[in-house]
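#struct-queue
[09:14] JT: dropping the first one here, sequence first, then the structure tokens:
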Amino acid sequence: MERLPFQVTAAAAPYADIKPLPVTLVAENVRSLYNVGALFRAADGAGIERLVLVGITGRPPDRGIAKTALGAEEHVPWEYVPDSVEALERLRAAGYEIAAVETGLHAVDLFDWTPRFPVCVIFGHELGGLSKAALERADVMVQIPMLGFKDCLNVATAAGVVLYELLRKYRRALEAMPQLRPNRSGVGR
């Protein structure tokens, strides 16, 4: 059986006018270059607007990132911002809902969350999670259900789960309100 790119299959039709998905991913102090590369791959696959790399998070060009990103780092718009507060405040001013992906007492289940697009999802350090400053600026805390022994996923795996759930929810929102679907020029009908 021949392997075909998703875009040339009939299954791609419902996604034709979605890219870019109105989502920005902020990676705060993600120390593993392989995880950063995987974030680029997930961002590319889900067709998000951009990645914002913050603090100690590695940035291209870097062999460690390129090894996992496999070229996605050349196609996903990204920027580096030294401080997450600056990045989040800028996104808030642009009308983004800020969603911290973190476990916590008041966190909403990812599958119950109704995001307000455009959305910024922020992911933190693999061991320490998000900074207090980032959490204080979040409109909502969203968690992925964890039914096993461990209480969290690898940051790149978690980002993949969240980004594809946002893609699913955005597609459903467009199906429910077709007037929101942009035309090919990116302007609403």
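[09:21] JT: and here's the second one, same format:
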Amino acid sequence: MLIEQRTYAPRSAAQTVLLASGFGGLLFIGAFLVLGIVAQPYRSAQEAISALEFTSCALAQRINFVVFGALLIVFAFALRNELQHGRGARMVPIFQALSGIAVIGDGLFIHYPLHLICDLIAFNSTLLVLFLFAWRFWPDTHWRPWAVYSFITAVLMMLFLTAFGVANHIGGPAGIMEKLATATRTLWSVLLTLKLLKGARL
């Protein structure tokens, strides 16, 4: 019985650097966690990440948003190079880049309604990226577990964001819910990036 062997050519140094932007969420999370400790006044468990833009660390958080957004856009270029053709080959990078642009907007527009509009674009674009990946992965038995994982990640994000809205309305731990949504998406990106850097092909 023959066993299919998957072999992959080495990536270029430039593409490897582009892919490394997939770790950008770790930098973003690390920054807002540290800022949440030192910023005044700020209640990390109750308040949204964006609330840091109205504290003593306002400028640092605005820079954090802009840097993270830029890394999301760079990752969009990396994904375009990886996807080449097939399901979502064009739409995934477009929505990935759109999420990055919206996150940069979060850093530039700190007041409502523009900030809220950027938030909605960022989160909805991220969800579309996850659902598109699930759609792309499903026909490939090699990637099918990732189709399930991508779908579960999107659902978890929606649940956490719904909980964020409810908690924000009643004065509960809204900040924790939003940060969990961010961490859920970041974990997905980090694991996918690691898999690609190890040689997997989309």
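[09:30] RK: nice, looked through the second one.
[09:31] RK: Residues 17-197 form one domain.
[09:31] JT: good to know. The chain is about 70% helix and 0% strand.
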